[in-house]
Amino acid sequence: MSLTNTDIERIANLARLELQPEEQARMLSKINGFFSIVEQIRTVDTTGVVPMAHPIDAMPGALMELRLRPDVASEPNARDLNQRSAPAVERGLFLVPKVIE
């Protein structure tokens, strides 16, 4: 599958984007490059490969553990040091101007 400049113009219009000609050419090249990668992936023979419901599933009936790092604090609490340069602090919280009325 390959897109044309007309396709890019239509996509930009749907996304409410105003692309300059050089941006349009760059988008055309990038999107068509993506489609060529997808076509390469489609050529891979997957005969006999069992689809997975989730990437964690190794094989049907087999449980795979997540290899997560331990949830340990790696940085010391430096709140006081970080809040020294803040314009306004109250009870350990940064105070910011009201944005929504």
Q: Architecture of one domain, according to CATH?
A: Orthogonal Bundle
Helix and strand content put the structural class at mainly alpha
Helix content: 25-40%
Rg (C-alpha, Å)? 26 Å
Q: Strands across the major sheet, in which order?
A: 1-2
Largest sheet: 2 strands, antiparallel
Low-confidence blocks of residues? none
Indicate the mean pLDDT: 86
How far apart lie the N and C ends? Answer: 49 Å
Estimate the strand proportion.
Answer: under 5%
Topology:
Layout: H1 5-14, H2 21-42, H3 79-83, E1 89-90, E2 93-94
Antiparallel strand pairs: 1-2
Describe this structure in words.
A two-stranded antiparallel ribbon has the order 1-2. The two termini are 49 Å apart. The protein has a domain at 5-42: Histone, subunit A, CATH 1.10.20. It has 3 helices and 2 strands; from the N terminus they run H-H-H-E-E. The protein is flat and about 60 Å long. With 101 residues, the protein is mainly alpha-helical. The protein has helices spanning 5-14, 21-42, 79-83; strands spanning 89-90, 93-94.
